[in-house]
Amino acid sequence: MTETRSVVVEREMPHPPEKLWRALTQPHLIAEWLMKNDFVPTVGHRFNLRGDWGGVLNCEVLTVEPNRSLSYTWDFAHDDPAYALKSVVTFTLTPSAKGTHLRMEQAGFRPEQKQAFGGAKAGWQRFFAKLEEVAGRAD
Amino acid sequence: MPDPHDLLFKTLADPTRRGIFERLCSQGEQTVVALTAQAGVSQPAVSKHLAVLKQAGLVRDRHQGRQTHYSAQLAALAPLADWTNRMAGYWESRFDDLEDLLKRMDQ
Questions:
Q1: B39 φ, ψ to 5°?
Q2: Count: domains in chain B
């Protein structure tokens, strides 16, 4: 059994792709909408996203096409495999009449794990609960 | 207020307990004896795990003679199955912050 799914979120942004690209790739700007980080827009660069909740995501830049596409791994290491996760986040920017169509896809959850039935889902839920906690505090 | 997610996390976080539950999912109804044969732990330990699973609503027991048969209750996993919606919610919220940032960048 493979447990590969993806989450897609899309939004029309009334801003040019170049400006959106800056928000997606400059560390001080990324920190304002996502998490603290040491991102560099270079393929193969390894960096961390640090959540306010203390969690650290291990990431590696996979693709960089300025103003068009950006992808990086989004992994959470944990001693208990039930809580560990591996995924890839891809941002795609498409120029539109109003500005830019932004598409985010997060895909590929622990396809190698046979007992993902309970494990991966439990791991994600734990992770999301923390994320939501943070999101809730920010409101 | 007890969080149903919390209970499911705690219940499925234990690898032995998760193994028992997965066996019930894949092989259908089983007795404690049959589960013990595959679990690698003692029968009292298996019974204890089953009690915890039952408390979380993940298994149901059925008495027949001197044997107790256990079966998985997949419906109890529903709160865990909606993670894609929750993750989408997370990204929607990040996108809200991104939009705010983009407005500020205009200034």
A1: -80, -25
A2: 1
Q: Say yes or no: ipTM exceeds 0.85.
A: no
* Domain boundaries, position B86: 4-106
Quick one: DSSP state of residue A40? -
Which CATH number do you get for residue B73?
A: 1.10.10.10
Confidence of residue A7 (pLDDT cuts 50, 70, 90): confident
B105 Cβ neighbours under 8 A, 6+ residues apart: A15, A19, A22, A23, A29
Q: Please indicate, yes or no, whether the overall pTM of this predicted structure exceeds 0.95.
A: no
Residue of B87 and B18 predicted with greater confidence: B18
CATH code of domain A6-138: 3.30.530.20
Q: What is the pLDDT of residues A103-117, one digit of tens each?
A: 999 886 554 433 333
Q: What is the pLDDT of residues B37-77, one digit of tens each?
A: 988 899 999 999 999 999 988 899 999 888 899 998 877 77
Given B87, B95, B100, which is nearest A11 (Cβ)?
Answer: B95
B38 vs A: CB within 8 A: no
Q: Which of B18, B83, B102 sits opposite A119 (nearest CB)?
A: B18
For chain A, domain boundaries: 6-138
Residue A114, C-beta contacts closer than 8 angstroms, at least 6 positions apart: A1
